[in-house]
Amino acid sequence: MALVAAAPLPALADDAGGAPIKVAFIDQLSGPLANVGELFQANLKFALDDANAGGGVLGRKYELLSYDDKLSAQDALTALQSAIDAGARAVFTGGSGSAVVSALVEAAGKHNERNPEHRILIINYASIDPDLTGARCSFWHFATEANTAMKMRALADFTRGQKDIHKVYLINQDYAHGRMWAALGQQMIATARPDVQFVGATLHPLGKVKDFAPYAGKAKASGADTVVTGNWGQDLNLLIKAAGEIGYDARYLNHSGGGAPGTVQAIAQARMGRLTWVAEALPNSDDPVLAPLAARVRQTPAGEYFAPRVLVSVQLLSEAIRRAGSDDPTKVAFALEGLRYASPLGEVMMRKSDHQLLLPQVVSTVVPVDGKTVKVGAEGTQYGFRQDSVTPARALDLPSACRMRRPAAG
Fold this sequence. Notes:
Layout: E1 21-27, H1 34-53, E2 62-68, H2 73-85, E3 90-93, H3 98-114, E4 121-124, E5 141-143, H4 148-159, E6 167-173, H5 176-192, E7 197-204, H6 213-221, E8 226-228, H7 234-245, E9 251-253, H8 263-270, E10 274-279, H9 290-297, H10 308-324, H11 329-336, E11 340-343, E12 346-350, E13 357-358, E14 361-368, E15 383-391
Parallel strand pairs: 1-2, 1-3, 3-4, 4-5, 6-7, 6-8, 8-9, 9-10
Antiparallel strand pairs: 10-14, 11-12, 12-13, 14-15
Helix pairs in contact: 1-10, 2-3, 4-5, 6-7, 7-8, 10-11
C-alpha cells in the first residue's frame, strides 16, 4: 500500500507554545505475538512519561498515539497514514520484524519526499536486519537496537571460550531476519571456532508452528549440542518446550529471547537446555544506574521486562530536539546524526553513515539461581541470568553497505 498525500496539516512551529509533541507506536498488539508488542508499548510509555515528568522537551510534553499493526505490513502502513494524519513527528516500531519495518521506512521515505512540510521519522528499537542500516538504509530511519551482525559478533566472540560446543544445528524462522541469523551464525561462528561442525539447518513459517517436535527431533538426531536460532516470542518458547519433551538438552544461541515473556519459564519447565542470548544490558543486575530504573518499570505493565534501549531511544530523540531547537523531523534527523549521548547504558553514538546506534552488548545464559553468579530468578522461577561476556560498543563498529541519500538541510 503506497501512502497518498494527506490533506494539508497545520505545521507545528518551532515555538509551538506548549503544544504536545506527538509520537506514534506501531507494533503488534493482537495475535500470537501480541505480548511482545504490549511490552514494548509499556516500555515506551514509561520512557515518555519519564521525559514528561522532567518537563518534557523545549517546554512541551510528549503525546503517545498507539496503533496495532497485527504483525502485518499492510496494517502497519494504514497505521502510519493515521499517525501522519494525526500529526505525529516520529514513529517508534520494530517488534513486528524486518518486513513491517522495511515497509514503514520505504513508505515514510516516499511520503517525506512528497510532503516536505509534514515529514516523519522512524525510530526502530527492535528489528535487527542489517539491511535496514545497510543496502536499504534511509535518512528517515534510525536503529536503536544492535543489528543482527553486531549481536552475532558478540555471540561468536563468546563461543571462542566454550569448548563444549562441537556440533551446531540451525533452526530459524523463514523470513529475512531468520535467514540472516542463520547465515551470519554459520559464517561468524565458523570464523571464531573453525573446529565446530555445522550438521544441519531448517526454516519454518513465522508464528504459525504449534508443534516444534519435528524440528527439535531433527536437531537431536544430528548429534548437535548447540542450536543457533533467531526464533523469538512463541516460536522460541515452543521450540524449547518441544526439545525438553524429547529429552534434548541443547544450548541455544539467540539474539534477544531472554528478554521476552515465557522464555525463562520454558527453560525452567523443561529443566534442560541453556539459552544464551545477547542484549544491551543484563536483566536483574545490580547496576547502580539501571537497577533503580528497572525497579520503577516493575510498577508499570512492563513488569520485569525492562528494555533500556527503548528509554534510550526517547532520550536520544529528546536530546536531538533540544539541539535542533525544533521538533521538525528534518532538523531532528540531522541533529541525531553522529550524536554521542551519556545514556544509562554508558556513552552511545548514533553513527552518521547509516543511522545505526552503537551500544554495548551483554551475553548472558539462563541458568538456575545459585546465590552467587545468579541471585535473582525471573518469571517467578528459580532460573535467572548469568553474565558471560560484554562486548563494548566500539568493538561493534562493523562495516556497512549504506549509501545514504540526504535531503537539503534546513
